[in-house]
Design goal:
Layout lengths: L1 E7 L5 E6 L5 E8 L7 E4 L3 E3 L14 E4 L2 H12 L8 E5 L9 H13 L5 E8 L3 H10 L6 E6 L5 H7 L8 H15 L3 E7 L7 H11 L6 E7 L14 H13 L4 E3 L27
Parallel strand pairs: 4-7, 7-8, 8-9, 9-10, 10-11, 11-12
Antiparallel strand pairs: 1-2, 2-3, 3-4, 5-6
Helix pairs in contact: 1-2, 3-5
């Protein structure tokens, strides 16, 4: 793998365009989060493209090409680690291009190697998924003995109708089945689980949405944290708009009144399209917009 180009955000996030040995392109990001320990976060891609087809995410805008092999994901980590001058410890977040659970075997193999050979420097591993029920519980079983593993499920909408429209890859299973699988994950691992909820103006930010979301999450008995974030616009989705900061704070306060463990999550690297949902894949070098 080789870094072709990079962009640097005003918040010091760096996004890298990487050419694989197969000749295709992926994006990875290197993020510094001062309040975390360790503060270095490597945002890693798991696929070239994505099959899920979320209308608010750029990752699948060019279609799906292939899964990355475990050694390619490790190469992403090694490339980003080589950029840390102090060689401090870091976190790995499988939240770049691709749905991690659609590349399950390579994902778990990569995590086990990072938790073994890289354990002296890789202190935390997180992944974000749309939430495939059978793989949520399997992931809990397969990583049971590994420390520092966090699972994050993207909910975004609290009805199956909206979820299946805006996240077509969820059509095969209901949200309640996903939440039930999360219950099993919590029982298996004795860990809390994380959920993300992107706020879109006028689509999922109403009182009724907050009420329904609370009903869904309250069955988990506080063994979770909900991370609410404002949608990061992408050029491929002109009909979606982010909710306002004022609306996000109101929505958070409302959820707290309903007994939800919630926090506001601020995405980094948005000015270089390195924020959540903004990373993508390119098929032709001539179409790459890096500067």
């Amino acid at each position: 793998m080789k870094i072709i180009k990079n962009l640097i955000s005003i918040d010091k996030t760096e996004k890298y365009l990487i050419r694989t040995n197969w000749g295709d392109y992926i994006e990875s990001a290197y993020i510094i989060v001062p309040y975390l320990r360790p503060q270095y976060v490597f945002c890693i891609s798991t696929q070239v493209g994505c099959r899920v087809g979320c209308k608010f995410c750029a990752s699948g805008s060019s279609g799906f090409v292939r899964n990355l092999k475990f050694d390619e994901m490790l190469s992403e980590v090694e490339l980003l680690y080589s950029l840390i001058h102090s060689k401090n410890s870091f976190r790995v977040a499988f939240m770049g291009v691709g749905e991690p659970f659609h590349n399950y075997l390579n994902l778990v193999k990569t995590i086990k190697i990072l938790s073994g050979s890289f354990s002296n420097v890789c202190k935390r591993i997180s992944l974000s998924s749309i939430g495939i029920p059978r793989l949520i519980t399997k992931f809990g079983e397969d990583t049971l003995d590994l420390p520092g593993i966090n699972l994050q499920i993207s909910i975004n909408f609290c009805t199956d109708e909206k979820r299946r429209y805006y996240m077509p890859g969820t059509c095969k299973y209901s949200l309640i089945k996903t939440i039930e699988a999360c219950q099993k994950y919590i029982l298996i691992t004795k860990k809390r689980i994380y959920f993300t909820y992107l706020l879109f103006d006028g689509i999922n930010d109403s009182f009724h949405d907050a009420q329904n979301l609370a009903k869904i999450l309250n069955i988990l008995d506080n063994n979770y944290i909900l991370k609410v974030s404002i949608y990061n616009p992408i050029s491929q989705s002109n009909d979606l708009s982010p909710a306002s900061v004022h609306k996000a704070l109101w929505f958070k306060e409302l959820l707290e009144k309903f007994g939800i463990n919630v926090e506001i999550f601020q995405s980094m690297g948005k000015d270089i399209s390195g924020g959540c949902g903004q990373m993508r894949v390119y098929h032709e070098i001539s179409k790459i917009s890096f500067k």
